[in-house]
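User: quick one, fold this
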Amino acid sequence: MDGTLHDFKLGIKKTVQARVIEQGFQDQMWRSSDFFVTTNIDHGVSLFTVFSSVNKLYLAILRKGDVNLSKCDMENTLDKNYFSSVLLYLERQGVTCGDAVAPTRGAEFEQVNRVGLAEYEQVLQFGAQQTCDPLFGFHLGQQIQSADYGVLGYLVENCENLNQALMALLRYDQLVASIGQAKFQYQGDWAVLDWLPNLQTTRHVILRNMTGWIAMVRALLTQPVAPEHVSLTCSLNANEASQLAHWFGCPVVGSQPHNQIKFPRAYLSLPFRRANSAMHEALQRLSDKALVQLQQHHTLATQIRIMLAASADLGQCQLDAVAGVLNKSVRQVQRQLKQCHTSYSQLLTEERMRRAENLLGTLPLAELARELGFNEQAAFNKAFKRWFGVSPGKYHKRS
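Assistant:
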């Protein structure tokens, strides 16, 4: 028998058994015969069947005949698993699922595999109100499990170390939630992870996202760790900042221009307790396939919005450059955007407006103008007044 296949099957068995013990048979997922079947894989089973079993085991979003992504654009949506974990948390707090999904289109929820950002925000806000918890997103993030991230969660779980896990996050984050862009960079001896939402969003979305990353990493590492500093774009009062700092193990500051986690670069080589190279390779293939299918159902306008949101310098985002990245001619891009009832100029303006509103007051106006791609501050001031009806200074005072 091929050694790689044997290791792969063994990895399935060990992972299932470990997860069953962890869950204490509380989760119906682990009582299902579909999942336990993988613990009895015979040596003669084909590699295709093994991959199919893993696909089921890890809640991959590509079950045959079970997914139809063509009905809607995937921008600003979340995977159903990530959304469902909010409902499970609320049930543990005494709030029934029916009550939780009432503010959303509950009737449609069972029919789709992605949930819109607006619906997600409504459920988080509903949960915060029902539990009287101003840090609902933070407490929700503390309870994150690998399964909540779907196939990406299990891919990360089987990574060798934190560096490999971060690379998986940067590449496949859209599978979990296409509501923002994660960026990673080095600053000397420090590593910095930023998260920039596509749209202005609520504090609970931000708190859950940033807290969940740390909670999951801590669960997978073989030793306790704490960041050096955490910045959040949402506001925090002194008591809230103190609670977050106690759990994160470092200063946490709100009302910042970026959602950012800063930690020692040396952490990147720390090993994960469940590292499994064969399982990681298989899950990476599944993730690649899932990502391709997800991206195929982005409209061209959405693809460009994502590219613009991920760009550090909008001044470099000329139409011809963007068309080149998309392997299209400028005319093709213009024609297809017209079919989407928009234009490249409009998409660029939308991104500039979003950044201007989010960053106003956090940067000098001249620096903000450059980041938005304006050669002169005067041109930025004129554009800002056209967008919002007042000058940047008056807008900042008013807000």
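User: anything notable?
Assistant: Confidence is low (pLDDT under 50) at residues 12-72.
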